[in-house]
Design a protein that fits this description.
xylan 1,4-beta-xylosidase activity; Trefoil (Acidic Fibroblast Growth Factor, subunit A); carbohydrate binding; six-stranded antiparallel sheet; Rossmann fold; 5 domains; 978 residues
């Protein structure tokens, strides 16, 4: 039985659960003695509705059993034959953490294809492989998937940029829906897997991520943030959301009432909402948020807000179940609150086929699907279709017949890196290997990194490492530098490097006691393999340890390497005790690369990032440029061989310096999985005509961006929608080996048609993009807004008519004066082209909508519905719900534009909390005519409100821009002028 919508709320018919069991003729209650797998149990009958099956199973559970299901690790209930169940298998671009499985391009790369049908196929493959593990159920496996990530990529410095799709909410929603539909199987009644959207809401910074608050004014919330989450939920392509770590408008996202009030209104199905890992513990007095005194209070608030499953304390459910039990005993919760959450959980489990004979529709899928030949082929196609050609001065495509003399160099030329949420590579085709396979002959290669020695100037001894596969603790032990004393120095930018031992090819990492050369590549939650050399005035270096954390007593301060034992074993020391090392180059990486490329037909340089170092979960980027040594390497290779092609392999927009001017060809890809090398070769040699397009603005400099903590995309001109500067590469950008001509857009029912012709000599794909711009509006509007797109394949000379849907409702924006969506009357530009700036054809559309009337401030107005502001933060009106505006300094102000005061208003009234001070009512500007002042005595609590009033002068009349100027520490909830 599906719920019926009433004013955006799902209303379900109340049916007593015990009655349902009797109607089914079962007569078995929670204390019955029927066999655990008795097919007479209604919850095991696939012919019954999901709701009826859930009602039956819920009625059979004891209170303790129901409470036990609220933790991520849901225990088995043997008496009913119910198996254990776990929320949270990672599946961002392949099944992760369960062993070898197909690794597809990172999510950002998948979106760069601009091909929803392809992404749906990838999602389906990942869903199949998740099911493929179901027969053996390895530790960590489950059918509730924590993917995709749909946080809009508003700031490229976000450490988790690789996990998202786009800075545009519409494109994000389309891709999430496609991937999610593949994961679910697309059957509304039967789930292949149950995907969970991450991370609700406004989670786009890692710095202090559990204590920072993301301020979302209503327009940003409605037009930007929510629009990335809503489409997949509406399309039944996701079965819930994960709450994020951060606060939103001063309230922890773990207790955000929108989990119920908004998210659940987007679907007719039950949703299963989960917390992020350990987030419940952040809520309490001992956590980072200190929002509630006890875990019982926090868990109760989370359940009431819309959380169903608590992800915390790993597999130990006792703290959660004890807290919920305590909340029930003290009246913070009712059993019906628990029932509501458990109903959501059981609904998903029923739809997954857990209680169907044989596991239901997808119960027979076995491990033969994992990394199948079909999935390998799909991974190669996805990686090739995702590549974006940034520049091409007739350097590409390469000719396999005449271009056999190729060198492939660079730090990423012969390796593949995986990210935190990546699966385990079943095999790895590196760029060097892919190009060699394409040519059918070995290619010259060099990583282009320096090999160095480190000698303590005080002792004259060299740092040495072990030569066996497991390595040894690094020591200062040798008087001369043999192979054991040599290290390959990889520069990742921002002053960070990694050291790989020449003795065994393993990276050096800290193991909480020593530094050992035993790591295949940098990784782990605490990335222990990174260092920061600090050059001293005398030319020596201190080697600072730059891992995430140490267990030393001075862990919060910089720590350095130095001998800590009588045998010279290296450990962590304070800066004053740090060893001074000479850093001598025994082999120049640039010289070796130059030697490899001299005389070759083409030099391919592969540079980029290391996903564990250049920003990732818990670590934002401060630098979007290539590492200095990588940039220098490209310049050296280019000087030695003018036919230089640069491949940039990373997961975020890159500033690139002058390289884009100096080299003839630039190709960008994310870390693209096991088939990276084959896919790159397919593109470089023209077997695949590149058609990937950028899903983010590539800025020329970090100075083009505001603080990463500033979430107001409208006021601070974020993303292509509002950015007024000159980008390095614009949103939607990407080149092809062929060319395309666009006809004029023609209005048809439901949108526009445009003829697109391939005018070149090669077959290729074009991504046809439709944008709109509202010429005149009461409110600040985007410069452009993506409304539709289609990736089309065209043979040389072929023309296709592309249909791009556009409804009048698509032109709506959020009207803060009346808290509703509105389409304004006026002229809208309709722009069709190959990117947000490369507009090939345009027309205009006259819309008969409505005119937003002047504000009526005689009605109670929420302060958050301002038009402009300065010096304020959005804060929690109460711990349960509501947003207020808090002044973060004297002189903070709010603007309420075009307000109709009629023949005059005489009284101002407002609900305020917090500090003592005043609220000034001014006209025209924050320093304009003062028409009244309300004195605030202070309430002593940010959640205790009082009403203050002020008499207004006779100047308060007509149509005016009204400003409220607020003293520091005052919270303003609502106000009116009458």
């Amino acid at each position: 039985m599906k719920g019926k919508r009433r004013h955006g709320t799902i209303v379900r018919r109340a049916v007593p659960v015990l009655t349902l069991a009797l109607v089914a003729g079962l007569g078995v209650t929670a204390t019955g003695t029927a066999a655990a797998d008795d097919p007479a149990y209604a919850f095991r009958d696939p012919k019954l509705s999901v709701d009826r099956r859930v009602d039956d199973l819920l009625a059979r559970l004891t209170l303790d059993e129901k409470i036990s299901l609220l933790h991520q690790h849901q225990p088995a209930i043997p008496r009913l034959g119910v198996k254990s169940f776990k929320t949270g298998t990672e599946a961002l671009h392949g099944v992760a953490w369960l062993g070898e499985a197909t690794v597809f391009p990172q999510a950002l790369g998948l979106a760069s294809t601009w091909d929803p049908s392809l992404i749906k196929r990838v999602g389906s493959a990942v869903g199949d492989e998740t099911r493929g593990f179901q027969q053996e159920r390895p530790a960590g496996w489950g059918l509730n998937l924590w993917a995709p990530v749909v946080n809009p990529l508003r700031d490229p410095r976000w450490g988790r940029n690789e996990e998202g799709y786009s800075e545009d909410p519409y494109l994000t929603g389309v891709m999430a829906t496609a991937y999610g539909t593949g994961l679910t199987g697309g059957d509304p009644d039967h789930l292949k897997t149950a995907p969970t959207l991450k991370h609700y809401l406004a989670n786009n910074n890692e710095a202090d991520r559990t204590s920072t608050s993301s301020d979302l004014r209503p327009r940003v919330l409605k037009e930007y943030e929510e629009q990335a989450f809503k489409p997949a939920i509406e399309a039944d392509a996701a079965t819930g959301v994960m709450s994020s770590y951060n606060l939103v408008n001063g309230r922890p996202a773990t207790v955000n009432p929108a989990l119920n009030d908004e998210v659940r209104t987007w679907s007719d199905h039950d949703l299963l909402n989960v917390t992020d890992a350990y987030a419940p513990n952040n809520l309490v007095s001992t956590g980072s948020q200190k929002y509630f005194g006890t875990l019982a209070e926090g868990n109760a608030a989370a359940l009431k807000a819309g959380i169903d499953s608590f992800t915390t304390d790993d597999a130990n459910s006792a703290p959660t179940t004890s807290a919920v039990t305590s909340a029930l005993s003290t009246g913070l919760l009712k059993e019906s609150d628990v029932d509501t959450a458990v109903r959501h959980i059981l609904s998903i489990r029923v739809r997954l086929g857990e209680f169907d004979p044989g596991g239901g529709k997808y119960g027979s899928i076995d491990k033969s699907v994992v990394n199948s030949p079909a999935h390998q082929k799909l991974a190669r196609k996805a990686a090739a279709d995702a590549a974006v050609l940034l520049k091409n001065d007739n350097a590409l495509p390469l000719k396999a017949s005449s271009g056999k003399n190729v060198a492939v160099v660079g730090p990423l030329a012969d390796t593949l890196y995986t990210d935190w949420y990546s699966g385990t590579l079943p095999y790895a085709v590196t760029p060097k290997e892919g190009i060699a396979a394409k040519l059918g002959t070995p290619v010259a290669s060099s990583e282009g990194v320096d090999r160095i020695t480190l000698k303590n100037v005080d002792t004259g001894k060299y740092v040495t490492a072990g030569s066996d596969a497991d390595g040894e603790a690094l020591k200062e032990s040798a008087g001369s530098a043999g192979t054991a004393g040599q290290f390959d120095l990889f520069d990742w930018g921002a002053g960070l490097v990694t050291l790989r031992s020449a003795a065994n090819g393993k990276y050096v990492g800290y193991n909480w006691s020593n530094f050992v050369n035993d790591q295949a590549q940098p990784g782990g939650w605490f990335v222990q393999q990174q260092f920061a050399p600090e050059r001293q005035d005398d030319g020596t270096y201190l080697l600072r340890y730059a891992g995430y954390e140490t267990k030393e007593p001075w862990w919060s301060n910089p720590v350095y390497l130095g001998p800590t034992g009588d045998d010279g074993t290296l450990g962590l020391v304070a800066k004053t005790d740090a060893a001074h090392y000479t850093k001598d180059v025994v082999r120049s990486g640039a010289d070796e690369a130059v030697a490899a490329v001299k005389g070759k037909d083409t030099a391919v340089v592969v540079v980029g990032s290391m996903p564990a170092i250049n920003g990732r979960e818990n670590n934002d980027r401060t630098d979007m440029g290539l590492a200095p040594s990588q940039e220098a390497l490209v310049k050296a290779v280019r000087a030695a061989n003018p036919n230089t092609v640069v491949v940039v392999e990373n997961s975020y927009p890159t500033t690139l310096g002058d390289l884009r001017k100096e080299v003839p060809a630039l190709l960008w890809t994310t870390h693209a999985g096991q088939e990276t090398g084959n896919a790159l070769a397919d593109v470089l040699f023209g077997d695949v005509n590149p058609a990937g397009r950028l899903t983010q603005t590539w800025y020329a400099s970090e100075s083009d961006l505001p603080s990463i903590l500033e979430y107001d995309t409208i006021k601070y001109d974020r993303t292509y929608q509002y950015f007024k500067g000159d980008p390095l590469y614009e949103f939607g950008y990407g080149l092809s080996y062929t060319s395309f001509r666009y006809g004029k857009p023609r209005r048809v029912d439901g949108g526009y048609e445009v003829a697109v012709t391939n005018t070149g000599r090669r077959a290729g794909d074009e991504v046809v993009q439709l944008y709109t711009h509202q010429r005149v509006s009461r409110d600040k509007q985007p410069l452009k807004r993506l409304e539709a797109f289609e990736r089309v394949s065209l043979k040389p000379g072929q023309t296709r008519t592309v249909k791009l849907p556009l409804k009048t409702g698509d032109l709506a924006h959020w009207d803060v004066t009346r808290s509703k969506w509105v389409v304004e009357s006026g002229t809208y530009d309709v722009l069709v082209g190959a990117s947000s700036e490369d507009i090939r054809s345009r027309t205009s559309l006259q819309v008969r909508g409505e005119t937003i009337p002047a504000r009526d401030l005689s009605r109670v107005t929420r302060a958050e519905n301002f038009d402009d502001y300065a010096g304020v933060r959005l804060v929690d009106e109460s711990k349960a719900r509501g947003t207020a505006v808090g002044a973060a300094g004297d002189g903070a102000w709010l603007k309420f534009a075009d307000s109709h005061l009629g023949g005059g208003v005489s009284k101002f009234g407002a609900r305020v909390a917090g500090a003592a001070g005043k609220v000034e009512i001014r006209l025209g500007s924050p320093t304009g005519t003062l028409v009244g002042t309300a004195q605030v005595d202070g309430t002593g609590s940010p959640y205790t409100y009082e009403t203050v009033t002020a008499s207004l002068s006779s100047a308060a009349k007509g149509r005016q821009d009204v400003y409220l100027v607020v003293s520091d520490g005052i919270r303003l909830s609502t106000f009116s002028l009458r």
